[in-house]
Amino acid sequence: MLPDKLRYAAKVLYLHMDATEIPIDGELDLHYFQPRDVKDVVGEYIYACREAGIYQIRIVHGKGKGVLRRIVHSLLADHPDVVRFWHESGAGSWGATLAELRK
C-alpha cells in the first residue's frame, strides 16, 4: 500500500506516450507497448517515479520468448538511476522485474 502522498502523486502525475496515459504508481505493464517504444517508456517511467517519490518499481514484461525481458534488463543495467534490479520471486517470476531506484 502506498502512503497517501504517493497515492496522490500516482493519481495526479501521468506519463503521456503515444496518447496512452500511464498512472505513476510503481508498476509498469509493457504489454501495451511495441518493443520499439520500450526504451523510451521505461526511461520516462523511471524519471516520473523518482519525481513522485517512488523508489521501487515493478516492470511487467511477460514470459513469452524473453525479448522484452532482455530489453528491460539491458536498459536497467545501463540506467544511472537504477541501483539494482532482480526477477520477482514467486508465481510469475519470469514475467516481471523489480528495480530499486536511486533516491
Written description of the protein model:
With 103 residues, the chain is of the alpha+beta class. It has one domain: 2-Layer Sandwich (Ribosomal Protein S8, Chain: A, domain 1). Strands 3-4-6-5 form a 4-stranded mixed sheet, covered by helices on one side. Strands 1-2 form a two-stranded antiparallel ribbon. A hairpin with a 2-residue loop joins strand 1 and strand 2. The chain is globular. About 13% of the residues have low confidence.
Defining traits:
single chain, 103 residues, alpha+beta, Ribosomal Protein S8, Chain: A, domain 1, four-stranded mixed β-sheet, two-stranded antiparallel ribbon, 3 helices, 6 strands, 34% helix, globular
Described by its quaternary structure, the protein is single chain
Number of domains: 1
**Which percent range describes the beta-strand content?**
25-35%
Outline, from the CA principal axes? globular
Order of helices and strands: HEEEHEHEE
**Helical content class:** 25-40%
The secondary structure category is alpha+beta
- Major sheet, described briefly? 4 strands, mixed
Number of distinct helices: 3
Strand order of the largest sheet: 3-4-6-5
- Determine the N-to-C terminus distance: 19 Å
CATH-defined fold name: Ribosomal Protein S8, Chain: A, domain 1
What's the CATH C level? Alpha Beta
